[in-house]
Every structure is written in structure tokens, then in C-alpha cells.
């Protein structure tokens, strides 16, 4: 550490501030954490911060959340990681649960119209998220043909098989280990925290909800939009906790609120089992991120240097990017009104051609939905 260690109160305040103003997803979170920890307070040197970004990207789940927890761990140890991680997550969680109560209840017409408009634009935002990752990933791909194959498989799986996407991501990683002839890593003890979050739950809706949340937090490589087809298949098709239109609203809410996109799982939990379900889903989904840092941060250098880990990510990472791109297909299938396709086209221009951020794109689409419905357009059914 290059600067004096902060107090826990400082960690709570500064990480909470980032949690409140962190609109725009991982790029915004990383920039804010760097400014705080490296540039302004000099708690972490630049090289260590860049290494932490790389290590967090090797882990499943929301990388920017794990980076926030790591930075807090680095400056104040395990207690700091718990305080800083919670402070980073809670503001967005409170916001998205409040909006879930509004959008999933019996809202006024203009709120329904805003949700229908923003939901129509979600597929365009997903395509923007995926395409933005392609150039850098392609450049560092060790085998271009296999990389393209994994990308295509991920896209097809996200568009078709939904909840089985996780198995495809793991299969691509294992296939790349075999292709690179890297010895498989030895067995390691898995932290018990994520598993304990599921154990002890009763049947009914809570156990399947816990499993969905665990997949989101512990088994999804790439975070963000990779988790969308997994959640959509379970929440809409398998368990019928919410309609397709409500799921689109949930994804839009996860984009326009501060904090990580994984907050979307809290809306799914709210739809399944009310406020308690939302809090349970969020707790389980974020538990692996805390476990990875609390029990594994001191091994980050070894993780990055492991050939088997690198090879696995060479296969799983392009499949995850493909899954982000493929997630647009089931999202588009949920649109029911002709005007929503027009809003989607406009959002595609904003997001893909003009390269505007997801918050502006979704807010513009929501405003368009309000105007169209108030002018006589039909609400989705």
C-alpha cells in the first residue's frame, strides 16, 4: 500500500459513494475505483490495480463487483472487504427493489409505457455490450479459428438452450484446455459460503430461486448480459415467476440503476417471492464474489499465472461474448407490439452506430414508449 490505510468509516463512505453514482456498468465502476484508490488516495499502485482487474476477469460473476471488494480488502483486510463490498452493492439494490415494486405491481399507464419502451431497447444494449468486447478479445486470442467457434457456440446456446448455457461455457473452457494440451489443475477446496447460502432453504419457490441466483453469481463467466438468458429461461419459461415483458423491464432496471447488472436477479427474486425473495436472490448471487475475494485474493498472482486457468478462459471467454450477443434473440422474441420494434431500431442506432451509453439509450427508449402510448399506441399484453 502506498498511502495510509483508511478507516472503516472512510471505506463505508467512499465505496458507498461509488455505489450511488456508478451508472454505466463496469467501465464506470473501474474508472471510479481507479480514481479513488490509485490517483487520489494512492492506497494501491497502478500496476497492482491493473493486475487486480485481470484477475477479477478470470473469475465467474460480476467482475467490477469483485474489483470493488478486492480494493476494499487490499486497503482494510477482510472486514474492509465486507464493509466496502456491501456499501458498493446496497445503494443499487435498494433502488432496483423500489423500482421493482413500482413496475411489477399495478403502475399507472405512463410507467407501463416507459417500461415497454425501455424493454424494447434491451436487445440493442446487449448487442452493444457484446460487440464492444470483440476487438480486444479477438486480438489476444491464441487460436482464431477456435475462438470464432466458441463465439458462435455461445451465441447459439444463448439464443436456444437458455438455462443450459452454463454447461456450454464450461465445455468450451475444458475443450480449450485439451486443445492447448495443458495439464488439468489439481483439485482445490471450494469455499463453502455460496453453498451454505442454498443449504437450509425450504422447498416451494425458495429453493429454485436460490439455484437461479447461485448460477448467476457463481457459474456465469463474463457477468453482465451473460446471465440474461439463464435468468430468462428460469424466471419466464420454467417457473413463470414473471412475464416476458416484466423480464425486459427487469433487465432495463438493472442497466439504469447504479451498481452491477447482477442486481437484475433481485427483480426476479421480487417477482418470485416479494421483498424477501429479492433480498435472498441478491444475497446468494453476490455471496460467491465475496467468497472469491475473502478466501482467494492472496492467490491472485498464482491464479493469473496458472496455464490451465488461462487456457480455460481462452475457451470460456469467447463463448461468454457470444452468449451476450445471442441473448438479444430471446429478448427480441418477447416484444409484442409493432411500435416496440421501431423503438428497438432507434435504440440500435443510438447504441451501435452513435455509441451512446446504455443509460441514455434506455431512458430515450422509455421516453419514446411514453409518447407513443399516450398518443394511442397499445401497451404489450
TrEMBL record:
It comes from the Bacteria. InterPro entries: Chr_Tranpt_l_chain (IPR014047), CHR_Transporter (IPR052518), Chromate_transpt (IPR003370). The chain crosses the membrane at residues 82-104, 116-138, 150-178, 190-212, 218-236, 279-297, 359-379. It is found in: Cell membrane. The keyword Ribosomal protein does not apply. Pfam families: Chromate_transp (PF02417). GO terms for cellular component: plasma membrane. Belongs to the chromate ion transporter (CHR) (TC 2.A.51) family. PANTHER family: CHROMATE TRANSPORT PROTEIN-RELATED, CHROMATE TRANSPORTER. This is Chromate transporter. It is a multi-pass membrane protein. Keywords: Cell membrane, Membrane, Transmembrane, Transmembrane helix. One of its GO terms (molecular function) is chromate transmembrane transporter activity.
